[in-house]
Amino acid sequence: MESFDSHWITKNRPARNEVDKFEPYACLVEKERSNSGLVEDTGIIFLTNKECSFTCLMCDLWKNTTLTSVPIGAIPEQIRLGLKHMPDVSRLKLYNSGSFFDVKSIPEEDYKPIAGLVKHVDRLIVEGHPKLIGQNCLDFRDMLQPELEVAIGLETVEPNVLKKLNKKMEVRDFVRAVKFLKAHQIDSRAFILVRPPFMSEKEGVFWAKRSIELAFEAGVSSCTVIPVRAGNGAMDLLEEQGLFQKPSLDSLEEVLEYGISLGAGHVFADTWDLEQFSKCPACFDQRSNRLIKINHSQSATPKVTCTCDPKKKGYAID
Ligand code: SF4
Ligand SMILES: [Zn+2]
User: What share of the chain is helix, strand, coil (3-state, %, to 5)?
Assistant: First the structure.
């Protein structure tokens, strides 16, 4: 039996992209529903940073990273550039392809300059691995004018699969991190995978639902459910070996609707590059628009009907 460890994962990777340590590798503005219920413009600056220390099996964020730490001052410079190229936003995500609180990724010397650059936003969202959530978060929060929110990858609560994802964490690490943040009045959100490798479609849906339940019980204010993709080398090999298959759009819809029905907090579906999960070009646009509408309204609308699934009852959306 092959071991899907860091060595196996990295040796099967395609080449990484060329990046500049002083420029973000992407910036965009998306609409996202805030805790107040308003759908607000949310900027995302994808920071060019050192590769994450964790090497998860399903991760492709390393593609736009550097092999060594970026110098002090590089991250604030990237944020300055990113903000210059986007309209005014009330919410900002700083995603660094890893953990914001890993000092090998974002040096502590940069916290103050970063805080100075984001003074104008109401909410700042960064990513963090559960094992790196601690005093650094509080130090950074104390320098900030906007509210801080930390997005944490729970991935799945199925313990054997979580172990195989090579994230080097257990569910209890996630719970500890969320409780720590909550005790210090810092909001958190969970990233949850829909059908990670080593699961059937049915198991993928089942465990995504259990993961949402656990995340809310732990104290997150929202969850984002992410259909798992191939494309990082390792996942493509697992797909060839029959150990991974992309989830269907139906599964993503089911998990999103279930999460919202709990009434425990916002649940969003990740709609990036969604077409690859569709088996029918005739209904894809309608289904994608429906998911976006549900993300914004946080209430399920009637399902899209299509000849691709004649057994389903429902109504076409306008
Ligand atoms: S912790 Fe997040 S960024 Fe780091 S390897 Fe895992 S999924 Fe990727
Ligand atoms: Zn269809």
Answer: 40, 20, 45
